[in-house]
Amino acid sequence: MSYEYPAEKFSTAHQALVTPHTQADHVAVVTAFHECRLGLHRMNRSKLDQTARGWIYALECFMSTEGFSDAGGESAWDIKAKTLSAEQKAEIARLIKELAGWFATHSL
Fold first, then answer.
1. Residues 89, 82, 38, 63: is their CA dihedral positive or negative?
2. What gap in Å lies between CA 96 and CA 31, rounded to an integer?
């Protein structure tokens, strides 16, 4: 399986979180979540090793919008991203960085 597309998407997600941005932090998180969702779309996870699957599971727990609903035109991700602590954002960035590296290494 080729991991070039997920590598690209997770790299873009990581850049959204670490590149200085002019918008609010929650916008960077939502952008990163969107890129991750694209990178994971239709992926056969059984082909991934246990470490990568663990990172994905942890990331998807952060991405889950259970208990959040669209309100006033804001997406559930926008609402959730505004509630994340600095520590949670740091952990999301770490998970995305790990996955970007994993996919890049395995796309060669």
1. positive
2. 12
One DSSP character per residue, the chain reads: ---HHHHHHHHHHHHHHHS--SS-HHHHHHHHHHHHHHHHTT--GGGS-HHHHHHHHHHHHHH--TT---BTTB-HHHHHHHH--HHHHHHHHHHHHHHHHHHHHHT-
pLDDT in tens, 5-62: 999 999 999 999 987 766 678 899 999 999 999 999 999 999 999 999 999 999 999 9
CA distance 52 to 6: 12
pTM here is: 0.90
